[in-house]
Please model this.
Amino acid sequence: MKLKFKLLAAFYDLFDLVFLIDKKRNPRYALADKIPDEAIRILDVCSGTANSSIVVAQANVRNEIICIDLSPHMIAVAYNKIRMRNIKNISIQQINAMDMSFQDGEFDIVTISFGLHEMDYEMMLKVLRQMCRVLKDGGNLYIIDYDREDGWCKKLLLSMHLKIFEPRHMEQFLKYDWAYTLKAVGFQFISSEKYIFSKLIAATKKSTAS
Model:
């Protein structure tokens, strides 16, 4: 797995070229639109090369965004991109998403983009529970990850990409019942919106007092 992300880090950002097919269906910009430009703390889990965080940070300069990832190679690429763009409201830490050192309820919003599909189901649940723990009651969770396509051309492109680059359990991942899964780890499912090759899932943390 470490070798995979070491190799991916060099050309990971090429994946975002697919969003140029239809910029209006780019889930990263949709995510930025959902987050208010206010003095809030956002945790971006498994942030990779910080593509989603950079879009959010540039749209919402009052946000404080903490990126975490386990891969030093992904973090190095992310750091260079943030420095070159002179972005001041993003910081990066090397942290295992299954064992975060943050306090309970430390963040207003938690996000993860194209990270959950890399995990088997039990590992994914552990990460989601950690995300729920560090999120404030009533805070929002946003997930960007793969979704099926209907058109034959996009379906073929997605199928080829998944078979070459992604885990064998992708067929199962694409069939997950997100309302059921998120409820099991302390979230209330809100919505799932379709974007190109992807979906944007929104949920909120249920209050522990209720």
